[in-house]
User: What shape does this take?
Amino acid sequence: MPYCVKCGVELDKSAKKCVLCQTEVHFEVEKEEPPYPREKDEIDNINVKYLAFFLSILLLIPNFAVLVINLIYYSGIYWMYYVFGASLVIWMIFIFPMVLERKRPILHIFLIFLSITLYVYLISLAVDGLRWFLIIALPILLTIMILMFSIIFIRKKKKIGRLKTTSVSLTALIILCLVIEGFIDYYINSQIVLAWSYIVAASLIPIIIALMILSGNKKLQEDLSKKLHI
Amino acid sequence: MLRQVEENKTNKWFRLDNAAKIYPAANTRRWSGMFRLSISLKEKVNPDILQTALEKTIVRFPSFNIRMRRGFFWYYFDSNEKRKPRLRKDVNNPCLPIGWNDDEGFLLRVYYYEKRIAIDYFHSLTDGTGAMVFLKTLTAQYLKQMGKDVSYTDGVLDVTQEADEREFEDAFMKFADSKVKSRVKEEKAYHIKGTKLSHGDISIITGVIPLESIKELAKKNKATITEYLAALLLYSYYQEKLREGLYKKPSHISISIPLNLRNFFDSPTNRNFSLYLNPSIDTMMGEFTLEEIILQIQYFMKSNLNKKTLNAMMTQNVKIEKNIFIRIAPLFIKKLMMSIAHKIFAYRPITASISNIGIVKLPKDMEEYVERIEFLLGAAKNRTPNMAVVSYQDTLVINITSMIEEREIERFFFTHLIKEGVPVKIESNRE
Assistant: This one.
């Protein structure tokens, strides 16, 4: 009779390993029928990839219809681009995850951003706004994406706490405001004179400094929570 | 009796009993409420003879010889007399989900493997007690056809006899008459996390234990076998909770224990007639020892295990079914509401369940052909380990089923028994 040296349980003669702790059995395995046969019965699953393909086709139908209608009744604007872009974003958000073997949230968010950028580009094509796209939309979208991934990256790699994450996010907010104002100024006046984003920065910087000091001082944190507890 | 069997000369149909109603609503392609009973003989099973024995036996049980149908307001069981159940070779992954048109429409599947006759039941059909009567009768019929002598006692029925109407009565309807309709409020229970097995797979870990030694261990702890095993299962989950943090919500660890109502209300029904009690501990109160858990479970069981409380619980369930607004809702609305309710509430108050059929007695002349009896629950919809227990002669068999990769609960449970001096033999369908 084989026993597991680690668990102390008796094992089936056909067992090669202890099923509880995976310790191998050092005992000659006898040729005996196992307690259950090897053959499995299948259950019918929906093929998710097939479903994704099917939904994609479904999504293509209105796009195709819009293409035809827009080309026949052309009234000076290619409004079909709106539908194309929106479909692309919908596809990226809902159908793309079905195609993936395992969940990949960062890749997914990145691709959603990319599709949104493309959507905005298509809108700018439809309304002849390439300058507007290049100077306002693209830089702002890029900045948001870069800042967001920086925060995720810092949080993951440095394993920072809630206080530090908040101060990093506020710093990102300041940068974003500067970028937005800078590019809007350039678009309108062709020169950069920053104004309101300085106010944002001025009011946020003290908070950021306070948070940084607080996050490094355990005793101060305790004192504050003692005095201010609700 | 007309309420239970609506009969015109050729066609019998049944309403689903109170406990049966939730299972078709909760049924999905990936999960059905299933359980399995099996008998291992001392010789290899002859499939041809078992097939004819099955065809004769199913006719004796009108409430098993049925298929699921959709009515306008409720599901119902329609007679399936024109078809015959087909014997199957056993598989590695029993208790697979059931579809209404699979297996000629029957809601049970009979398997054979080496010396074993196994039946997977859909829970709407019956509970453990009724299922055991069917399995015993089928095995006895098989043995008879093999030329053995088996007498009709201890729950073995004569397949040539007509069924008594009381065997398929809806006992809930009959006995639920309490003026009080209440059930204790139950807290949200702690659930363990785990790595999913691939779809359709099930993990079965079996512990074979000498009945005498576990009896002694339970006695030493001043508990019954069910109480002791329930406490130990809870204690195994408690170890996981200890690792994750005792003072994190949800902090209730609760074990669901089905009760055979036939012990309290006199009914010979072979359909569902059981209820659940969910004793629990609250880890927010601090650390627990196994002894404390045993006491906690015992007190809970003692204060609830009486005819009056059980009747009140039963009445509460029946009241919902009798509500006129629920009754007049079309089936598709009911199905939608019930499947959502099942998803949200079914596993909310329970961490795991343990079902003990108790000691199975066979006719004296049948005992010499039967080696072992086993009972296992299909994995819970929330995938975490569940336990089923049955004893026969001097052996107690515990089956723990789950749909997760990890085996921590099982390992702690069985090695604890070893430490207490109870020898355990482990078998499994896994590597």
